[in-house]
Amino acid sequence: MKQTLYDGSRRTTVNTRYDECLYLAPRPVSDQPDVKVTGKDLYMHVAASQEKSVTYYLHLWSTSRTVKEKILPLSPSMADRFLKSRGLDCNLFPKNDPVANLYAWGYGIAEEF
């Protein structure tokens, strides 16, 4: 899926076919048409410009033909939380934030605090 995201005056075109996928939600294994499954995939888009700006976004998909696919931009901290909520730790994000310190101390869910 290809879509253009706007951040102030900056325009970024993201494409799930070419961007790096950080998390791919499980796909259904059943071929039955009555099974409706939705999922969220996390992608990272690196701009080709000299700034090398990184855009994180969620691709919301469904096996139902009546539900439209969506792309939602995410901040780096929200992308990190998304991965941690699924038990994954990624070294692409800065580790000087308080949430990372709490995870390092053994707390599992940031919403506990």
* Largest sheet data: 4 strands, antiparallel
Helix content: 10-25%
Order of helices and strands: EEEEEEHH
Low-pLDDT runs: none
State the shape. Answer: flat
What does this protein look like?
With 113 residues, the chain is α+β, with helices and mostly antiparallel strands. It is built from two helices and six strands. It has helices at residues 76-85, 98-104, and strands at residues 2-7, 10-15, 20-23, 38-46, 54-62, 70-74. The longest helix is centred in the last third of the chain and has 10 residues, at 76-85.
Structural features:
two-stranded antiparallel ribbon; 113 residues; 4-stranded antiparallel β-sheet
Would you spell out the secondary-structure blueprint of this structure?
Layout: E1 2-7, E2 10-15, E3 20-23, E4 38-46, E5 54-62, E6 70-74, H1 76-85, H2 98-104
Antiparallel strand pairs: 1-2, 3-4, 4-5, 5-6
Summarize the structure.
It contains two helices and six strands.
